[in-house]
């Protein structure tokens, strides 16, 4: 670069790619050359350009390229149905080997198909969802970034991380879910800027923070997701954000705030598009009304929720409904019926091998017994809980909490406050293996 | 005779026409060069084609995507620029001998340029370039949060770049954006 010659616009535009010596020469030149300094500052947007940017005139060329790409994408999607069927008929380990070694599985269409299948499996079988998301990721990272464009490639990889994060969260692996979300965020920064993917990231992070009981962060993330969905004019996704934010607020101890959000969500949710979300809003409203002690309203809501659950037919959800009914019966003073319902819930969770819910139902039953001074039944429950948790080799801290409960039960000093303290610990410990138990003061 | 179904390109053309004014305004506001603007538009249309079943309002989605992409475009470009300037300054200040007159002039200019920055910026760059401290060490010494250090350092490098280049450009004020040193507390 000679001092009496201007530096080309393309060299200025590609400044980061210049050699060290060229960069140094540029700085030396720019100091003496106001024109090149101005071009640099304008090119890098460090100073406002005096002339506006020319408008795109070549729409036809852009459209032609897009339509060509779409044709290829549609072909891949058609082929993906058969490829997925072929792949999934193998055992899991073999599926992994095939996608890592066989090029014919490396298509965007198959990657998208696996993402859809993973999403559908999240609630019913989170471990399968994790496996499918991992398969989709193996494929996404092997695709040629140039075939559809680098930014779209980053979007696709981000989607595989988001799917993996959701599946890991559903299977209670919060640490790996958190890592997957960070990876997704990094990919989205290099992606197309799709607001829906950014909203999904915030939405999932809201859920994860809620499970980690970091409620302030959870609410901030949900608010971010809801704001994007509002701008995208998607009322259904806004409703989903409100439902989840309500759950976080309820877990943080504010069921009244959640009641307002669930009712707002019910005005917006599209039951045709996603029946599960409609059910969730109604179910959560019932949970919150019960927690807030608004028994009359809860009983009105109970009928609606029961009807929706009977259509849905998931055994675990039916049990959760029965659990709420037990709580309502207790609040109404019908201890006998409440005990009957809670015993059913406890036994069913035991059969389904869902230890934390089983323990929480047992403690709720213990509360009922404590109110009636039935110490023998409390002792029996305490022994059962220790035996099952020891057999399942569940974290030592949880067993320590239950030991304290058993000691108190045997000494006939198990108070309502102690039972609630232990129940509160179990709710947190389910998602936080590192949580330490401390006895109440 | 049956009407021909609208071709895909015609449908997309209609979409583009309906948001043409807003699209142009976004590219203008973010001052995206034409060639890059075409790429961004193409990527956004392709992204739409890959996930269109999930989009409730195409216009809102398209404009939101373009806005985000333009923002990310500058963030990525500037990050490359700051990294290049940072590497250049580090190498230049580390070279103690064997140079021609030009390089020693640049080193002198560098020192002067750093000296003209606000005090907080100056402290950060002196620690980075003078004492070879990394982000964590600078954060600890100056009381910043380590997680914010990269962004703060980038703002200082931006201010330094402007100083280095705009000296010959005269005293006209250059724009701030994320590069404004006054943002450094």
Description:
The complex is a heterodimer of chains A (about 450) and B (about 180). Chain A is mainly α. Among the domains of chain A are: about 1-45; about 350-440, no CATH class. Chain A is built from 22 helices and no strands. Chain A has helices spanning about 10-15, 20-30, 35-45, 60-90, 90-100, 110-120, 125-140, 145-150, 150-170, 175-190, 195-210, 215-230, 235-250, 255-270, 275-290, 295-310, 315-330, 335-350, 355-370, 375-390, 395-410, 415-430. In chain A, helix 20 runs antiparallel to helix 21. Chain A is elongated, with a radius of gyration of 29 Å. The mean pLDDT of chain A is about 90. Chain B has about 180 residues and is mostly helical. Chain B folds into 2 domains: about 10-75; about 95-185, Winged helix-like DNA-binding domain superfamily/Winged helix DNA-binding domain (Arc Repressor Mutant, subunit A). Chain B has 8 helices and no strands. Chain B has helices spanning about 10-20, 20-30, 35-50, 60-95, 100-115, 120-130, 135-140, 150-165. In chain B, helix 2 packs parallel to helix 4, helix 3 (about 35-50) packs across helix 4 (about 60-95) and helix 4 packs across helix 8. The longest helix of chain B is centred in the middle third of the chain and has 37 residues, at about 60-95. Chain B is elongated, with a radius of gyration of 23 Å. Mean pLDDT of chain B is about 80; it is low at about 1-5 and about 170-185. At the A-B interface, helix 2, helix 3, helix 4, helix 9 and helix 11 of A face helix 1, helix 2, helix 3, helix 4 and helix 5 of B.
Poorly predicted runs of chain B: 1-5, 169-185
| SSE run of chain A | HHHHHHHHHHHHHHHHHHHHHH
What is the SS-derived class of chain A? mainly alpha
Q: Helicity of chain A, in percent?
A: over 70%
Mean pLDDT score of chain B: 79
Which radius of gyration of chain A do the C-alpha atoms yield? 29 Å
The largest sheet of chain A, given as strand count, sense and whether it forms a barrel, is: none
CATH-assigned fold name of the largest domain in chain B: Arc Repressor Mutant, subunit A
| Unreliable stretches of chain A | none
The end-to-end distance of chain B, rounded to whole angstroms, is 73 Å
What percent strand of chain A?
under 5%
Give the DSSP E fraction of chain B (strand runs of 2 or more residues).
Answer: under 5%
The Cα radius of gyration of chain B reads 23 Å
Shape by Cα distribution of chain A:
elongated
Largest sheet of chain B: none
Helix-and-strand structural type of chain B: mainly alpha
Number of helices of chain A: 22
Tell me how many strands of chain A there are: 0
The topology string of helices and strands of chain B comes to HHHHHHHH
Q: Which two chains share the most extensive interface?
A: A-B, 66 and 75 residues
